[in-house]
Amino acid sequence: MYMTNKMKQVANFFTSIVAYRNISTTITISTVFLLAVGLLSCDHTSVYRKFQSLPSEEWCMEEKPSFSFSISESQKYTVTIAVRHTKDYEIGNLWCFVQLSDSTKQIRRDTLNMMIAEPNGRWLGEGGKVKTVSKPIADTLHLEIGTYTVQIEQGMRVQCLEGVKDVGITVARLSEQ
């Protein structure tokens, strides 16, 4: 792997810290280092981002938000599902069924388990009163030029989930540097 000067500086910094820490701290620092290298080596350029609000801040089983987007360049992309919720959401996770289709056929169908809270009840995700959690449907997808549709349905055993405000997706182009 080719390393830029900035990446080498980050590696040297973490190496010097590792020499003075115990094993569990070393593992944590190594993880942070790998994430930093990953973020520096790939550039994510968003080509589509949209949220749909849910009526009455409830996501009922019959509601299946759908998003259509166009790809103008054949290459690798990430497709990420996002959910915005309030403290009224009472479950620690959220199962979603996600279907990606092009104009002629279904390309992929996935079941995602989105973690909403830690076992101790601490909310995960970003934000204050409204939290946003997200999860990619795959690390990378090679998409050809064309129009695609993503349909998302909640897969919980509850008819309507209270506290879910919005469901959305982000499609980002992955370009290696």
Topology (elements, then pairings):
Layout: H1 5-18, H2 23-41, E1 42-53, E2 58-60, E3 66-71, E4 75-85, E5 93-102, E6 106-115, E7 131-136, E8 141-143, E9 146-154, E10 160-162, E11 164-176
Antiparallel strand pairs: 1-11, 2-10, 3-9, 4-7, 4-8, 4-11, 5-6, 5-9
Task: Please describe the structure with a list of short key phrases separated by commas or semicolons.
alpha+beta; 2 helices; 177 residues; 4-stranded antiparallel beta sheet
Short account of what is shown:
The protein has 177 residues and is of the alpha+beta class. The protein has helices at residues 5-18, 23-41, and strands at residues 42-53, 58-60, 66-71, 75-85, 93-102, 106-115, 131-136, 141-143, 146-154, 160-162, 164-176. The strands form 3 sheets. Strands 1, 4, 7, 8 and 11 form a 5-stranded antiparallel β-sheet that branches. A 4-stranded antiparallel β-sheet has the order 3-9-5-6, with no helix packed on it.
The rounded distance between the terminal residues' Cα atoms is 11 Å
- Provide the residue-averaged pLDDT: 83
The helix count comes to: 2
Poorly predicted residue ranges: 1-5, 16-43
Describe this structure in words.
The chain is of the alpha+beta class. Helix content is 19%, strand content 49%. The protein contains two helices and eleven strands; from the N terminus they run ααβββββββββββ. The chain has helices spanning 5-18, 23-41, and strands at residues 42-53, 58-60, 66-71, 75-85, 93-102, 106-115, 131-136, 141-143, 146-154, 160-162, 164-176. The strands form three sheets. Strands 1, 4, 7, 8 and 11 form a five-stranded antiparallel beta sheet that branches. It has a four-stranded antiparallel beta sheet with strand order 3-9-5-6, with no helix packed on it. The chain has a two-stranded antiparallel ribbon with strand order 2-10. Strand 5 (93-102) and strand 6 (106-115) form a beta hairpin. The chain is globular, with a radius of gyration of 19 Å. The protein starts with a helix and ends with a strand.
